[in-house]
Every structure is written in C-alpha cells, then in structure tokens.
Write a structure and sequence with these properties.
The complex is a heterotrimer.
Chain A: E1 2-5, H1 24-37, E2 44-48, H2 56-59, E3 63-66, H3 72-82, E4 87-93, H4 94-100, H5 102-110, E5 116-121, H6 151-154, H7 160-164, E6 170-176, H8 181-199, E7 204-210, H9 214-217, H10 221-235, E8 239-243
Parallel strand pairs in A: 2-3, 2-4, 4-5, 5-7, 6-7
Antiparallel strand pairs in A: 6-8
Chain B: E1 2-6, H1 16-20, E2 26-28, E3 41-43, H2 54-58, E4 64-68
Antiparallel strand pairs in B: 1-4, 2-3
Chain C: E1 4-8, H1 9-19, E2 24-27, H2 35-43, E3 50-53, H3 57-68, E4 74-78, H4 81-85, H5 87-96, E5 100-108, E6 114-117, H6 122-126, E7 137-139, H7 144-161, E8 164-170, H8 171-175, E9 177-181, E10 208-209, H9 216-236, E11 240-243, E12 250-253, H10 257-271, E13 276-281, E14 283-285, H11 289-296, E15 303-308, H12 314-322, E16 328-332, H13 341-358
Parallel strand pairs in C: 2-3, 2-4, 4-5, 5-8, 7-8, 12-13, 12-15, 15-16
Antiparallel strand pairs in C: 1-9, 5-6, 7-14, 11-13
Helix pairs in contact in C: 1-2, 1-7, 3-5, 10-13, 11-12
The chains are: A alpha/beta, B alpha+beta, C alpha/beta.
C-alpha cells in the first residue's frame, strides 16, 4: 500500500477557517510540505501575520508566534539573531507586508536577514472585508475604492519583488501563481528552494504568491483564478527577480 | 488499484478539484451535505483514476488522500 | 573584574546589561541614549552577543518581541519618542507574556520636545502606554551605580514574570559620568518550555507566543493570568528609599535624579532646623502606596511635597497613596529645566512660614 498523496505532518489537524477556494490553504500546504521534506520541522519557528492567516499558529505544526500587523520581518530578525541556527519564516498578506510592514520587509532585505518570507498578494484586504491594498489594481473595485482604484487618488499597484530586488541583501525573490497544477508544482519548488537557501545560511528570501480572494472579489474560486490570469498577471509577471544561488 | 478518499467533513465544495481532474472524474455532490452544510466533492468513477494527484494538489483544505494498493 | 571606574551613564548601563547576560540588543539612534547602541555595537559581539541597528523603534520593539519569545536575554533602549513608537509592541509583549528589557532615557516633550532630561514619560511608563489592561514593571534609578544594578535586576524580573520591564532614566542619568562598580551577577536559569526555540514534537507542548484571543471566554482567562501577575508584582516588587523621614514634618516625594537634588535641599533644611525628609519610589510600577499611607497617618507629618520635572504626574500616585490625609504640595519644573536645591529648600521654608501665618 503506497501513499501517493497524504497530508503533511507539518500541518496540525485543525481544519482551516478560510473561505471555500481560498488559496491560503494551498499555500499553507506548500510551506508545511517544504519544511517537512527538508527535515526542518524541529528547527522551524513561524510567524502568523495580522490578516486572514492570523490563525496560522493553529495550522503550522511548529513553534509559532503571532505578530503585530506588519512587524513580522523585524520579529523574525529578533528570533533569528537570538537563535541563528533555527529556521525562521514569516507568512504575510499584502496589507501586512506591502502596506503597514513595508519598512520592515525592506530593511529585512537590506540587512540580508537569513529568514524566509511567504508573501501572499491577493490585491485586497481579506480579513477586514475587502478594502484596497497597495497591490490593488487600477480600476479594481474594493470597499475603499468603490468606483475603481484611481492612480491619482489612491496610488499605483506596488510591485514587491521588483522593489526588493534592488537590495543587495536580498538573495532569492520569485513570484509564483496557483491557477493550475503546473503552477502549483512550480510554486512548491520555489518555496522549498527558499527554505533550502535558509538552511544553507543564505540571505533574505521572499516568495510572492499570487493568491485569490473569491469572497471579497465577489466571484467563484474558479472565476477568481480566471480574473487573476487576465488582470493580475499583466501587472505582476511571474518569474525569478533575483537568485544569487541560481544559474542566472 | 488507485484509491482516493475525500474528507467530506473538511470539504467546502469549492470545486477546484473538479476543475483540476484531467479525466473529469470528480463532481460536487448533489445528495451529500456535511455538518457545515457544504456539498462536498465526490469521486464518480474510481477505476478511471490515474493517481495524477492534480485534485489533491489544488485542494485548499487538504481533504484528499490517494493510495495505491 | 569588579572594580570602580568612571563611566558615562549610557555606557555603564550597556556594560551592565552585557555582564547580566544580554544576548541580543536592538537599538535605533535617538538622543540622549545614543551611547547605549554605540556601546553595544562595539562590545556586545565580543561578549558573544549580537547587536542590530534597527530601521525604527517599531522594529526595535518587534525584534525584542521575537527574541524575547525565544527566552534569550534581550534588550532595547530609546528615548521618549522612540518609546512612544514601542507602545504597540510593549502591549503585545504584555499580552503574549514575552520577557524583555526596555530602557527609556526620558527627554523633553511632547512631540519632538528637546534632548535634555525630563520626567514627562511617567504616565506612559507606569499606566500602560499601549492598548489594553496591562502594566509595565518600571524601575527608576537616581544614580549610574543604581542604573547598572537595576538593569541587571530587570533581566531577572523579565524572566521571573515573563513580561516586558522598563528602566526609566532621564537625560542626566544617560549623559552624566560617575564612578561605578559594575557587578557580574550569577545568571539564574529559568524554565523555557514556553519559548519558541524549535520543537522536537515530543519533549514539551508546541510553543505558541500569542496575544490573540478572539473568543471572549479565552480572553477572560488570559486577562486573569496577567492581572494575577500584576498583583504578585504589587506584593513582591515594590522598592523605595526612605531618606531622613523618621522625624520629618515635610516629606518630599521624588524619583530619579530629582530625588538627589531633594536630598541636597533636605540637608540644607536640616541645617536650618527644618525637619524634612524624602520618600523616593524606585519602583514606579508597582508604586509604593503603602509607605506613603503609613507616613500620612503620622501626626508629625504636616505635608507632602512632590518634586517633578514635568507638570505633575507622579503626584497622582502620591494622592492615591496618602489618601490625601495630609496636604500635598507640588514643585514642578517644565521645559527640561531642573530644580536647584536652594529653590526646593526655599519653597519648604515658604510653606512653613505660610502655615505659621495661617494659624
């Protein structure tokens, strides 16, 4: 009896609270599998953000800290500097990382902190009910851009991988997506590689995962992926933005 | 023989696995309903399943387990 | 190597922290505490620790939260404005029961204020400057020697109570040079099974550092745990100094460097036959209410005189402690100006004269 697919032990038994079709669940699995497969479970310390994934401390089956909004790259720095041989990762949404936490994520990259960030860009604030995030697209309707986001009034979409690529301390930055099996497998490789680099003591790694928010986008999980391919992909092209360890 | 099980209590009927299956073997049940009153996904023809794991890879609630006997 | 040396306050405090086993220090530049991060940058690494200059005080307190959550001895420092930025983090540390030492060298305020000494952060430090029901154990030194002893003590109190603790100095403590003998305390071991250090899955429960309790029933329990700790601190951690109070008719109440100026005034008053004394709170939270009540009930005590370098904040705790059984006079200095001993002494003589006239 061979197990072709079974739930990773790096996830607890707690059912996810996420909305039906929300990509957080997929990403949690990719992160947890990466940690387990690299044999890092007993050294991993994760940080749950403030946002829909605020309950991540109940899902990742490793030592966890919950954080103040946007501060996890700094909190992770504190942990890593105190215990340099542990594997420290932050899991953050676009409100947490790109808005209130923009200072912290930039300086974690500037300092080349040896931590891993999993950044979910779903172009909206989920937990608080659908407000505009820095990654919200021009023309996109949200509860705080009810007539469609206007560059002049609300600013322009923020490209996190491109921004962080300017920092010498950033070691590996890749943007991935999840709208089909091939992309999910590619996303897993990127996430696992980021953790591998941390295990090797390399610099700051961030994987930007294009996530969906069916509830606040107001469409079905499947339509959400379609909308994402059509609208988000042009603004947020996939690919590697930096890979000091790669064959660039 | 591939055997696929869906944890019907965790499933939220999001339909992503149904879309992902290359052989269209999955569907959202119209008869079953779980404790949260979601209609879970179900396998329609186990023999045809090739164990490609696409459904399990895309399931946001890690409901699917696949074994090969 | 415990010999007496002449040292600047900020540097002595940093050295004292290193000898107390501080493993990580996070700091951001702000006058008048800059020599703390500078000293740490030059010396913490040599002692086997790690110094990080942060991008902001928000980051400093966040790093302290993370590091404290591992159980390692961690510290940060700043001045007034930076401590204001840290309030969210301090509240999170209180809520998640994370140990960590925070040093505040109080400067002028509000707003950008000025870089010289002031005591205007008393409320912020002792009444919980962040959100929610919590207190920060807060000790205030009057000298550099005491600052060194207290910062070392605070590392243990942080672990004992698993919570953020603060040393509230001021620009003078930070900038003065005084002879000091920095001790090499024996470092107590503490149970760290609660700390996020990596989990082998078996030896203990999975560690979760957390202040998020969406379910009210859980929050009631969590708040209860914190309140129990505060009652314990109020019972076990009150510290104060009584100076010439035995026969004192006027009792001054002052903390930090202002208390030393009061002592000079008291000597001068005693020479003029005026019986004055001082009660100096060392723990600002938990505040020494009981001793104040005790003196307020003594017939010999005619009045209390609070002396503060601000518009009057500690005075509110003196009102609580004395239950207003005796008159409470105030001699406050604003704008980072400090009192002279003569000003204080003259004011007491004025009060004495007014009292005789009043009869």
């Amino acid at each position: 009896m061979e197990k072709l697919f079974t739930k990773t032990t790096a996830l607890t038994d707690k059912p996810f609270h996420y909305c039906p079709g929300c990509t957080h669940g997929i990403i949690h699995r990719l992160v947890a599998e990466s940690i387990e497969e690299l044999g890092l479970k007993d050294k991993a310390i994760g940080l749950a953000p403030v946002g829909c994934a605020v309950f991540a401390n109940e899902y990742f089956n490793v030592d966890m800290q919950t954080t103040s909004h946007g501060r996890s790259p700094a909190i992770a720095t504190g942990i890593k500097r105190a215990l340099p041989d542990r594997i420290v990762f932050t899991y953050q949404g676009d409100g947490d990382l790109a808005s209130i936490g923009c200072g912290e994520v930039n300086h974690a990259a500037v300092r080349g902190e040896k931590i891993t960030t999993i950044f979910i860009n779903n172009a909206i604030y989920g937990m608080t009910g659908g407000q505009a995030a820095p990654t919200t697209l021009l023309g996109q309707k949200t509860t705080t851009t009810p007539y469609g986001k206007d560059g002049d009034a609300n600013g322009y979409p923020m490209k996190v991988c491109e921004m962080l690529a300017a920092h010498e301390g950033a070691y590996y930055l890749e943007r991935v997506a999840l709208w089909d099996t091939a992309h999910i497998i590619k996303a897993k490789k990127a996430i696992k590689k980021a953790f591998q680099y941390q295990a090797e003591g390399k610099g700051y790694c961030l994987i930007e995962v294009l996530g969906t928010c069916p509830t606040n986008w107001g469409c079905s999980p499947l339509e959400a992926f379609e909308w994402q391919k059509e609208n988000m992909l042009p603004m947020y092209p996939l690919g590697v933005f930096k890979d000091k360890g790669g064959e660039e | 023989m591939i055997r696929l099980t869906i944890n019907e209590e965790l499933c939220k009927g999001c339909g992503l696995c149904v879309n992902a299956c290359p052989k269209d073997l999955l569907r959202i049940s119209t008869t079953k309903e779980n404790a949260k009153s979601y209609n879970p996904a179900e396998m329609t023809n186990m023999e045809e399943c090739i164990g490609c794991k696409s459904c399990a890879l895309t399931c946001p609630d890690v409901c699917i387990e696949i074994v090969k006997e | 190597m415990e010999k007496t040396v002449l040292m600047k306050g900020n540097e002595a405090i940093a050295e004292a922290a290193i000898r107390a086993g501080c493993k990580v220090y996070f700091g951001y530049p702000i006058t008048p505490q800059n020599e703390i991060p500078e000293y740490m940058a030059a010396n913490l690494g040599k002692a086997g620790g790690t110094f990080v200059q942060t991008e902001s005080e928000l980051a400093s307190i966040s790093m302290l939260y993370g590091a404290g959550g591992t159980g390692e001895r961690a510290m940060t420092s700043s001045s007034s404005i930076g401590i204001a930025l840290m309030q969210e983090g301090i509240s999170f540390m209180a809520g998640a029961q994370v140990p960590g030492v925070i040093v505040n060298m109080n400067r002028g305020g509000p707003g950008l204020g000025g870089i010289q000494a002031s005591q205007g952060d008393y409320f912020q430090a002792t009444k919980g400057g962040g959100n929610g029901d919590y207190y920060t154990l807060c000790l205030a030194p009057e000298s550099i020697q005491e600052a060194c002893d207290l910062v070392q003590l605070l590392f243990d109190l942080a672990q004992k109570y698993r919570q953020p603790v603060m040393m509230l100095g001021d620009g003078m403590i930070g900038q003065m040079m005084e002879p000091v003998c920095i001790k090499e305390p024996e470092q107590k071991e503490y149970d760290l099974s609660w700390a996020t250090r990596g989990w082998d899955g078996v030896s203990r429960e999975r560690a979760i550092i957390n202040s998020h309790y969406p379910n009210p029933d859980d929050m009631v329990i969590q708040n209860g745990i914190l309140q129990e700790k505060y009652r314990q601190m109020e019972a076990e951690e009150v510290r104060y100094e009584e100076y010439m109070c035995e026969d004192a008719e006027t009792i001054m109440v002052a903390w930090g460097t202002v208390a030393r100026i009061c002592k000079s005034a008291i000597k001068s008053l005693r020479n003029q036959g005026v019986k004055a004394g001082l009660i100096r709170p060392i723990s600002l939270y938990p505040f020494p209410y009981a001793i104040l009540e005790e003196y307020a009930k003594k017939d010999q005590v005619k009045r209390f005189l609070t002396v503060e370098m601000c518009a009057g904040q500690m005075v509110e705790d003196v009102i609580i402690g004395t239950k207003s059984l005796k008159p409470i006079e105030r001699l406050n200095k604003l704008g980072m100006m400090s009192h002279t001993p003569k000003e204080i002494a003259d004011y007491v003589i004025e009060l004495e004269a007014a009292e005789k006239e009043g009869k």
